[in-house]
Structures are given as structure tokens and as C-alpha cells.
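Hey forum,

I'm writing up a methods section and want to include a predicted complex as supplementary material. The small molecule is manganese (II) ion. I've pasted the protein sequence and the SMILES. Can someone with a working setup run it? I'll credit the forum in the acknowledgements.
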Amino acid sequence: MKVRVFYHDKCFDGACSAALFSRFYRERVRDEAEFVFSGLVHRAGALFDESKFDGDENAIVDFKYSTSPKITWWFDHHLSAFLTPEDADHYERQQSTKKFYDPDYRSCTKFIATIAEKRFGFNPEPVAEMVYWADIIDGALYPDATSAVEMKEPAMKLTMAIEATQNPKFIPRMIPLLASRPLAEILAEPFVAEVMPPLLKRHAESIHVLRERTECKDGTVYFDVTDRELEGYNKFIPYYLHPECVYSVGLSKSSFRTKVSVGSNPWSHADRYVNLAKVCERYGGGGHARVGAISFEPGNFETARGAAREIVDELRASYRENNGSR
Ligand SMILES: [Mn+2]
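Reply by user p_vandermeer:
Happy to help. C-alpha cells for the complex are below, copy them as they are.
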């Protein structure tokens, strides 16, 4: 019995969701299951390759809805969970008792834990540490920007490793540990510990690069690091460097995409925020109200840069309007 679990790749909440789902499945659905973990990333063009839906059961966690009948379980909490209105319709009309959506949850991990406990009698107590940190990290519930970039807690170091890894086997190897071991122990595993020193060094360098390249104007920081291999930089650095800013828009690249990241400062006290999921959806991206992203083809810097500029203009105009200046 093969259960393939598709999860939001390079995301702490995505990995924890896969870990929690597999533990729940083994304990409450079927204990004789072999799990195969496959990461899904947002990219320009088709999101899913349905030929990969080859498990006896196929689950998607912390990622967009698929109408494929081969998908038997689904959990998501993204505001942009549906690629099209037709997909949203399909979800509304389907009769499955194994597909769940609630955008009010800060983390998909907590969402799965809650549903698994309430509907299937799962005991979330042994994984409480993981659920707690998934909620803090996906919900950006750090007390301040300094603690978000200091990297003190094991969960934050694991997040950095998960977001930056280029090794496709790294996260699938970590997922079973997330479901069964304390986070500090996972961090001490040799395959994890060995990647940390270069990542911490790169983290320090990225703070330095962004310090040089960011400027806050009309409540919005914009930066372009497409000349560097920096995708996976800590997304709170802009707010650490510019505590007064409300929004940040960043352009970065990796082997498979050019990415526009659009975020808002979790520690700012603005009265109103632009819904960033909606902004990103206009360009084919998505996310949550307070943080979103758009993926463009790798190398398509001009289109991505054009979109980033338009978004920066829009956010700055909104900031000026709400703050009555000029
Ligand atoms: Mn999530």
C-alpha cells in the first residue's frame, strides 16, 4: 500500500504537514502503509504533473487543490488555494470527507492536527512541539524582527535548512523525523548539522547584501537580488533592516523560477493592509492576505521586474493614501 504525500516544498509548514499527515494516517487510517514524499513548488505554467499521482492513495497538504480523482486527501489553508473558480466549484461540489480547507488557520500543520483529532480520534500530543512551531513560523508570530532573523531556536534553523536546500532528498529524509523526534534532536542529526554552518554564513551575507540594496520609501521596501543565488533568504530581513516599513517586494532567482515575493511587516501597526494574495493572483501567483508570491519562468527577469515595479507603485500609493502624505 503506497501513500504518496505531496507537500509544499521548501516550507517548514509544508514539511511538518507531510509529517503530521503520515503519522495520523499510520495511526488512524492504516498502519501498513509505505509513504513516499514529493515536494510541490509554485512555478510558471502547470502546477501538477498528474502522472506522478501514482500512489494507492495520493494526498496533497499545504498546497493548491487538484481536481484529479486520484487525489484522495487534501488539506490547505492558503487564501489562494484554488487556481481557478472552476477548481473552487469542484471542491464545493465534491462529496469527499477527506478534503479540508480553512484559510483561517495560520499553519496547515495545526489545521491537520485539529481535523485529525476531532474527526478521526488522532492524539496530537506527541507532535505538539512541531505543531506549535509550525504555527509560529507560518503565522510569523515572532515577538520582533530581531528574533525572526537571529536563528536561535532549533525550529528556525530547520526552517532555514528546509527553505535553502538544493538536495531533493533532504526534506523527504527529514519528514519522518519531524513526526517522531524533538526538533533539537533533528538539528543534531549529522545530515542536518552538516548543512548549517554554510547556511548561517550565507544568512549573515544576505543581511549584508540587503542592507546595501534596500531602501524604504512610502512604507515599501523594494529590492532586486537576481544577480545572486539568494532564493530562500530569510523573508524578515527587510523588516529587521527597516522596522518602519509596512510592505516589502523582492525579486530573486533560482534554477526553476524567477520569484517576486510580496510581504507585509508582521510588526507594523498599520490600520489597513492591501490583500497581498489578491495582488499576487492578478499576476498568476497567490498566497495569504499578508504574504504572497508570484513565479515567473527562470530567466524572465523583465516580466518579473515589470510586475514587481507595478506592485511597488500600488503599495506605495496605498500607503500614501492611508497616511495622508503628499
Ligand atoms: Mn502553510
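Some notes you might quote in the supplement: The domain at 2-193 is CATH 3.90.1640 (inorganic pyrophosphatase (n-terminal core)). The chain has two domains: 2-193, 199-323.
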